[in-house]
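Supplementary Methods. Inverse-folding protocol.

Structures were first reduced to a discrete structure-token string of length 383. This string, shown here, constituted the complete conditioning input.
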């Protein structure tokens, strides 16, 4: 196993009715900035639950955080936050809002009107305001991880910022909030979480049976309960997908193992260029990327084939190929594109390479050996 340090201080409150307890979690003297997105929380009752729970506490609001949140919008929120003397940021929504809340907490703390360069250079150098998360869409794991993925219109970029100090103090996960989600968001969420596990699992094998065993359980849960969630929206399905998506990217399965975030970095570039939903950019690239790297990843792909898909095949290479086919079938079953053309876009490989260059993401993969020409070939295979 590789050496690792792991500290996840986010307090989880999971289950129906837990939003009512948010008042116990926010410091009593806090001036709260409630951050939300395009308004779903106002129509599905979540906003009312939050405001009732915060009763007489001072709350400022900032709504309108976009999907794939924009830095320029958060600059406006930061100005308001500073003017109003906000001391706590509460994000209520999906990954976009929660990412935005964590990043905003750092932006306000810098005291700068344009802190992009400072935060891009060293996000860990800023001690953000404390923040908390109320999750309404399981997908990203943002509610208890250190990452914010932020887009900038001015820079034409979408990049991740990671700061351990930005992890939410608490994450409230009430699976009943998922009942107002559309089918597409449910599909996206289950598939995004699935790829998060794969990018921490399908790399170079090390001595990590705990991480691999847990990853396999999460994958099996998502394969079983993702489709059930779409079909039934049962209480069990909402609970299982919400919890699995959280565990998929809270740091645990990635501790001590090599990781490969190449599909994600290429996917972020595609969203920056074409505005496609995050999860769908991943499914259109990942199967081709796995085929391209099949030889290097064959040991873990073969393990994945046998332990997750129960493929009875002695030859590792063949087992790996079959596992990629099953992965593709699962993504297609979740109505996600597994080829770029299925998303109805013409992707210019050079534009993706330019984005990766601009974002300093030029050596991808667990061996840092996926370079520009490899990305070009992967995009050609995924066409
Ligand atoms: O804006 P509102 O009105 O809230 O509507 C949202 C949005 O339109 C809606 N929604 C959320 N909860 C709802 C709901 N509608 C009805 N009922 C509910 N309960 O769903 C739409 C999508 O929301 P969004 O937050 O954008 O989705 P998601 O959670 O998939 O987040 C995607 C963002 O997270 C980033 C992605 O790149 C993307 O920007 N990621 C963050 C990661 C992290 N922090 O670790 C890792 C991920 O790999 C990912 O990159
Ligand atoms: Zn993702």
């Amino acid at each position: 196993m590789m050496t690792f340090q792991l500290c996840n201080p986010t307090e989880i409150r999971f289950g129906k009715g837990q939003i009512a307890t948010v008042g116990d979690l926010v410091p009593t003297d806090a001036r709260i900035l409630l951050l939300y997105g395009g308004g779903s929380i106002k129509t599905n009752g979540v906003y009312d639950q939050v405001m009732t729970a915060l009763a007489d506490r001072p709350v400022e609001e900032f709504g309108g955080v976009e999907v794939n949140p924009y830095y320029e919008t958060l600059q406006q929120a930061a100005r308001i936050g500073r003017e109003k003397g906000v001391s706590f940021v509460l994000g209520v929504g999906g990954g976009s809002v929660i990412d935005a809340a964590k990043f905003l907490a750092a932006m306000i703390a810098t005291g700068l009107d344009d802190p992009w360069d400072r935060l891009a250079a060293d996000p860990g150098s800023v001690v953000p305001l404390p923040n908390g998360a109320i999750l309404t869409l399981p997908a990203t794991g943002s509610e208890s991880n250190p990452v914010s993925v932020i887009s900038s219109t001015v820079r034409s970029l979408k990049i991740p910022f990671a700061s351990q100090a930005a992890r939410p103090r608490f994450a409230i996960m009430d699976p009943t909030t998922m009942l107002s989600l559309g089918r597409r968001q449910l599909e996206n969420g289950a598939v995004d979480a699935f790829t998060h596990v794969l990018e921490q699992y399908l790399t170079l094998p090390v001595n990590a049976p705990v991480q691999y065993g847990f990853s396999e359980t999460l994958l099996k849960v998502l394969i079983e309960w993702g489709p059930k969630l779409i079909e039934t929206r049962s209480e069990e399905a909402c609970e299982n997908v919400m919890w699995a998506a959280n565990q998929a990217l809270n740091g645990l399965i990635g501790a001590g193992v090599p990781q490969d975030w190449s599909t994600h970095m290429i996917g972020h570039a595609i969203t920056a260029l074409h505005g496609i939903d995050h999860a769908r950019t991943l499914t259109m690239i990942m199967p081709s990327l796995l085929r391209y790297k099949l030889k290097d990843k064959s040991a873990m792909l073969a393990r994945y084939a046998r332990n997750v898909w129960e493929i009875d095949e002695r030859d590792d290479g063949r087992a790996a190929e079959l596992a990629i086919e099953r992965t593709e079938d699962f993504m297609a079953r979740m109505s996600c594109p597994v080829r770029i053309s299925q998303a109805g876009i013409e992707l210019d490989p050079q534009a993706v390479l330019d984005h990766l260059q601009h974002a300093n993401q030029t050596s991808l993969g667990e061996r840092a050996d996926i370079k520009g020409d490899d990305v070009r070939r992967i995009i050609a295979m995924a066409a």
